[in-house]
Amino acid sequence: MKKVICVLGVLLIVLSCSKRDINESIKEDNPEISLEIPAEFPALNGSVAQNRPTKYGVELGEKLFHEKRFSGNNTISCASCHNPNLAFSDGKQQAVGIYERVGLRNTPAIQNMAFMKFYNWDGNILQLEKQPLVPIITHEEMNSSILEVIGKIAVDTDYKKLFQKAFGDASITADRIYRSIAQYEYTLISANSKYDRVKRNEGERFTAEQERGYTTFKSKCASCHSTALFTDQSFRNVGFPLNPNPEEVGRGRVTGRIEDQMAFRVPSLRNAMYTAPYGSFGQFPTLRSVLDYFDKGVLAAENLDPILKENGNRIPLSEQEKQDIIAFIETLSDPTFIGK
């Protein structure tokens, strides 16, 4: 009996050491990618710590991001709507998916996702790893299923090799697909605009127009577009023109609260010059049209943002102030991020 116990003990030790050696080998062959947190940026969100980007996890995620077999007819990938050359937006009023079907909302840009608390216009997603499934199964987007996607790519030798490198074996699962895409998106950090270089004292200076715009921005825009992300990540009804689609109620779709109807997440203004049109369903073709609308007066609502209510449902702006604000927003453009 003692011999049996001894043999079992030895086997357990051997298996434990073997498993540990395998895990260590995976870490050595697939090292974590360090995410540099720019100065004044908020802390990384909690999900990043549970899904640290790795060399092959990111490589796999980028490949999956551009994979058109995610869609039912093999024509639409994540990159079809999130174009790297447009700061991962698409330049269209509303997202256009499979068979030219038009979605409910404007495609949001993908940038600095590792620092966000909520995703999508209504904040219905709290973890980036849970986002990829949404477009896959949505009728107007990819109109597919994760099982169909796995079936298509499981026969691809390149994918088998990448899953092996990223996770230690070639098994292709839904969770691994979601985690890989999120790892790739966590690396999409934009913080090298003229504004950033000025703030870092790297030898650049604002023009007089940009400096005036920054001053006006801080007094008339920064209540919502605050922090180094240029969004406070809140949900607000700012009285924009209403989406005629009866399914649209903004944040209210998520919470069911009347006070959240037609409230949307404040978008970041980083790289805004690349991401027109603007608004939850692309109501505004230019930044100038957004500022003109605020100046003339927004739609009244019971839950209209208090800042607007206190100012007669508008943000008064002179012609000079509008030009200056746009000049400042241009300094938030990061050419090194475009085309990543």
Description:
Pfam families: CCP_MauG. It comes from Sphingobacterium detergens. Keywords: Heme, Iron, Metal-binding, Oxidoreductase, Periplasm, Peroxidase, Signal. It is found in: Periplasm. Heme c 1 binds at residues 78, 81-82. There is one protein chain. This protein is mostly helical and 340 residues long. It has 2 domains: 31-186, Cytochrome c-like domain (Cytochrome Bc1 Complex, Chain D, domain 2, Orthogonal Bundle); 194-330, Cytochrome Bc1 Complex, Chain D, domain 2 (Orthogonal Bundle). It contains 14 helices and 2 strands, in the order ααααααααααβαβααα. A two-stranded antiparallel sheet has the order 1-2. Helix 3 (55-65) runs antiparallel to helix 7 (157-167). The longest helix has 28 residues, at 2-29. The termini are far apart. 38% of the residues are buried. The model is unreliable at 10-15 (pLDDT under 50).
